[in-house]
Design brief:
The chain is α/β, with parallel strands linked by helices. The protein is 30% helix and 22% strand. The longest helix has 22 residues, at 219-240. This is Glycosyltransferase.
């Protein structure tokens, strides 16, 4: 792994895991990060790209810190590699095929002036049409443990469109090692340890394309296994906090039909 030394601190660390063979849209992600820096301040927003496996990226590395993982290890391992070098007080994931919206970052930062909140869930829109996704949500406060009790398919918000305190995500162990829905599991782990807030602000623009994992024929079966593990792990954690167990909903597809978990 080739990295650079950590020095200093900043407000935001935007983390992107990228497979070299799927980096075709990375230039658009880079342009969105550059726009965000103009609003936030260049010194207060760092972008860390974790390259998952051998291969070259488009020439965007001048504005990013690059962490290379020589052996392909999966999205969770790549994000965690980026997290290891993050200097920001606040962490925001950005997929390599999506784009960042600076206004969402700033609204999440303002909400996190409340010391009782550990994480903020934002909305996302479709990049092609700017239309709302199936996870669109309004403003809602989540008390510790409350997110698992409202587990539904589709989820209450898109779990990859979040801003979280760095110390909280580190206490949760970063992104869990699941084949899919690692972001959903992380959101619920964050919720077990800290209160959070859903806000209407848009943080990311989401691209739909044929090469995505959710388009794979194996995705539904992989998702069922992930939900089974998430339920078992969550309930083990919830016992420590003397909270009632939860049952996962029927997973459905990429967005699913709404079905609520039971307590």
């Amino acid at each position: 792994m080739v990295t650079s030394k950590i020095v200093g601190t900043c407000q935001f660390s935007v983390l992107t895991a990228c497979l070299p063979e799927r980096s075709v849209y990375l230039n658009e992600a880079a342009a969105s990060v550059a726009r965000a820096r103009e609003l936030v301040s260049p010194n207060e927003l760092e972008w860390i790209i974790a390259v998952d496996g051998p291969g070259d990226l488009p020439d965007v590395t001048a504005q990013a810190r690059v962490v290379r993982i020589e052996r392909r290890s999966g999205i969770s391992a790549a994000r965690n590699a980026a997290l290891a070098f993050a200097r920001g007080d606040l962490i925001a994931p950005l997929d390599a095929d999506d784009t960042l919206v600076a206004d969402g970052l700033l609204e999440a930062q303002e909400a996190l002036l409340n010391d009782h909140l550990g994480w903020i869930a934002c909305n996302r829109v479709l990049l092609s049409t700017q239309g709302k996704t199936g996870h669109w949500h309004g403003r809602r406060t989540w008390q510790p443990g409350g997110l698992a009790e409202s587990w539904s398919a589709p989820f209450a918000f898109h779990p990859n469109s979040i801003v979280v305190r760095r110390d909280l995500i580190l206490r949760c162990g970063g992104w869990p090692a699941l084949a899919t829905n690692e972001d959903l599991f992380l959101a619920m782990l964050l919720s077990e340890r800290a209160a959070g807030l859903s806000i209407e602000a848009v943080l990311t623009r989401y691209r739909v394309w044929d090469g995505q994992e959710v388009s794979s024929p194996s995705y539904p079966a992989t998702k069922r296994i992930a939900f089974r593990f998430i339920e078992a792990s969550l309930n083990s954690i919830r016992r420590e906090f003397d909270r009632d167990p939860v049952t996962h909903p029927r997973p459905g597809g990429a967005y699913g039909k709404r079905a609520t978990g039971t307590r």
